[in-house]
Write a structure and sequence with these properties.
About 20% of the residues lie in helices and about 35% in strands. It has about 675 residues and is an alpha+beta fold. Strands 21, 22, 23, 24, 25, 26, 27 and 28 form an 8-stranded mixed beta sheet that branches. Strands 6-5-11-3-2-14-17 form a 7-stranded mixed beta sheet. A 6-stranded antiparallel beta sheet has the order 1-4-10-9-34-7.
């Protein structure tokens, strides 16, 4: 029976993602900015997904712009790298404390005298969302950046599953194109070639992606990560991926079913036993089958080993002939003894599977009944459980039952059949396959010191299933240990040791999976720096060498009134909170045009490159500068006239900087 836990986890992530918004883009100065590239390369190595995302933005407007991009993250992802392209060179970002990074970015993008250069800030918003601030976006000049994301994957049935957010139909951003490197990749459920380009069309917010995991060396693969916090605490994470197929059914099975037809089983119970035999033969191609029925005595129904596909038909004939009618007596030992006889001399892989309600006479002695069975033969006991009408089907191993030693002594297991018993139900057939071959690890235990009980590994792990647990510990856990289990009765052990790459992923998931509750700021910093990721306490800041406040920068200032303003270059926006109005560049330009009228009365034409720079405080003009080519006498007149200007009342209380072409404030010829 296949465990659906991993698939359920990923479906849950899809449902969570369905309520989240898609990526969004905002231009600070209102210029038309568009995305022209959103390319994603995805790879999975040792259960860790890496996304390399390249995005390019172009400002289609006239003025220099700042873009703020809200980035929705893939499920469980954290950003562990950022770089920007500047002048044909890639510049890597540094991991900086979150508050310091924001202050540095605001300072570097402010008003100054330097040429424009590139700072980019990536900061934390939530476990599913980051923010990118990009400046400057020059008119018509592409701005390209790359960031990397790391994320855990979901394992199920030999495949690693992950996802990537799409653009919605209403989004102004580009639909992502994705290349997946790996074995047998699938994007949106469609098989694609490795590294084949695919566009994520609109649909569910998260597009599912998967690749085939490499075949494990043994029944399961383990990954173990440990992250110290520097304060005596640590975070440990364990992942177990069970092989898609733990074993293969022998091609030469020779099986005798011992069927309980006693009165205590009744007609319904006998029908259920027939359904189990039917289900078993569906998963054992090539098997040869005999059926022994026991009540007070035992009887071989077929008298020979017949092909498994014929067994159910022969059983129905026996039922129609009354040979399966319930009778008195529950002599399981006689049934087992006859089964041993029927297997005597048979070649191949020999099995006995006893089907019973475990209601027997006090003198029952099965060990003597099996005394003649060969050492390599396997015995299973399947007992009737409860709720046979339940829709769920399963076989629960019970090593404590009084019949269990009988099976365990012969390499087999004793199980209780629970739930719906119907060979037409695939879930029941999956469950019964456990009696054909080992399909799960039983009696699973973990030996990792103080992390052992906290990680709480399930005692049963089905083939193809994945299990992950993360725990906060006081003190350092052991860096090596072992995972133990049983394949029927065969012991299995897997060495568990700390892996550096998985430890970094462990640190990243502390924030991406919202596991940072109870951690102090120093502990959060230690974990974020260990993983080199954006977090609530760290940001990425990429700075082109020599970046300083530029002539086209942005003023960001929290006013005492509670407002927040931004003013920049040739176009500015100032937003005010608490009921204040909106300041516009036009507040000063009409005043300057009137002030400068006398300067242009007899002067020569203004040169196109001449620019006027004016700095104001809340009450006055405090800086005047003229740059570019202009007539000397005109320049002197303009400078003196601006210095004599009184600010209009609408601009009182606002700190602003103006960078204007002189032509913009020249009076219109009459």
């Amino acid at each position: 029976m296949k465990r659906l836990g991993s698939a359920v986890v990923f479906v849950s992530l899809l449902l969570i993602g369905s309520t989240a918004a898609a990526d969004s883009l905002r231009a600070t100065r209102g210029q038309p900015v568009e995305e022209v590239e959103h390319a994603v390369s995805v790879s999975v190595v040792e259960g860790v997904a890496t996304y390399r995302v390249r995005r390019t933005f172009v400002n289609r407007g006239r003025w220099v712009e700042e873009a703020t991009v809200t980035v929705m993250l893939p499920p469980g992802a954290a950003a562990n790298g950022l770089r920007i392209e500047a002048g044909g060179t890639w510049i890597d970002a540094e991991l900086v404390g979150a508050g310091r990074a924001s202050r540095m970015y605001d300072q570097l993008t402010g008003i100054g005298q330097a040429p424009m250069q590139d700072p980019v800030l990536m900061k934390w918003e939530s476990s599913s969302m980051l923010t990118l601030q990009i400046f400057p976006l020059r008119s018509g000049v592409p701005a390209t950046l790359e960031y990397t994301l790391t994320a855990p994957v979901t394992y199920a049935d030999g495949r690693w599953t992950l996802g990537y957010p799409r653009a919605t139909a209403r989004s102004a951003l580009l639909a992502p194109t994705v290349r997946v490197t790996g074995e047998a990749p699938r994007i949106d459920g469609d098989a694609v070639a490795s590294a084949q380009l695919a566009t994520l069309v609109k649909g569910a917010p998260i597009a599912p992606i998967s690749v085939a995991a490499p075949p494990p060396s043994g029944p399961a693969v383990t990954r173990y990560g440990v992250v110290p916090t520097g304060t005596g605490k640590s975070v440990a994470r364990l992942e177990v991926d069970v092989a898609p197929a733990l074993s293969m059914a022998p091609p030469d099975l020779r099986v005798v079913f011992v069927l309980d037809a006693s009165q205590s089983v009744d007609v319904d119970g006998i029908a259920a036993e027939m359904e189990l035999i039917d289900a078993w033969t569906r998963r054992a191609p090539g098997a040869q089958v005999e059926v022994v029925v026991f009540r007070r005595d035992a009887e071989a129904l077929f008298g020979e080993l017949v092909p498994g596909e014929q067994a159910v038909g022969r059983l129905r004939e026996a039922l129609a002939a009354g040979r399966l009618a319930p009778g008195n007596g529950s002599n399981l030992d006689r049934g087992l003894a006859l089964a041993v006889q029927r297997l005597s001399g048979a070649s191949g892989s020999r099995r006995i599977i006893a089907l019973t309600d475990a209601t027997m006479r006090r003198g029952f002695n099965a060990s003597s009944a099996l005394s003649g069975l060969s050492d390599e033969a396997i015995v299973h006991i399947a007992m009737r459980g409860g709720q046979l009408s339940s829709r769920r089907s399963r076989l629960d191993r019970d090593d404590t039952h009084r019949l269990a030693p009988l099976a365990l002594a012969h390499h087999g297991v004793a199980v209780k059949v629970e739930g719906a018993v119907d060979a037409s139900n695939p879930a029941f057939v999956d469950a019964v396959e456990y009696l054909v071959r080992p399909t799960r690890l039983d009696a699973v235990t973990l030996d990792l010191g103080r992390a052992t009980s906290s990680l709480d590994v399930p005692t049963t792990l089905d083939e193809g299933a994945g299990f992950t647990a993360t725990v906060h510990l006081t003190g350092a856990p052991r860096r090596a240990g072992a995972l133990h289990g049983l394949l029927w009765t065969e012991p299995w052990e897997r060495h568990v040791a700390v892996d550096d790459a998985y430890s970094r992923l462990t640190a990243a998931t502390v924030f991406s999976e919202d596991r940072d509750d109870g951690l102090t700021r120093p502990e959060q910093l230690a974990i974020a720096r260990f993983a080199h990721i954006v977090s609530p306490v760290t940001s990425f800041l990429a700075i082109e060498p020599g970046t300083r406040p530029s002539t086209e920068g942005i003023v960001r200032r929290s006013l005492m009134s509670g407002g927040y303003g931004m003013m920049g270059g040739r176009y500015g926006i100032s937003s005010r909170c608490g009921g204040f109005g909106v300041m516009r560049r036009d507040d000063l330009r009409p005043t300057l045009t009137s002030t400068l009228r006398s300067c242009f009365a007899d002067g020569p034409p203004v040169q196109p490159k001449a620019r006027l720079h004016v700095e104001t405080t809340g009450d006055e003009i405090v800086g005047v500068r003229l740059t570019g080519e202009s007539d000397v006498s005109l320049g002197a007149c303009v400078t003196e006239a601006v210095w004599r200007t009184t600010l209009p009342a609408s601009m009182k209380g606002s700190v602003q900087d103006f960078n204007l072409a002189l032509l913009e404030v020249a009076p219109t010829p009459e």
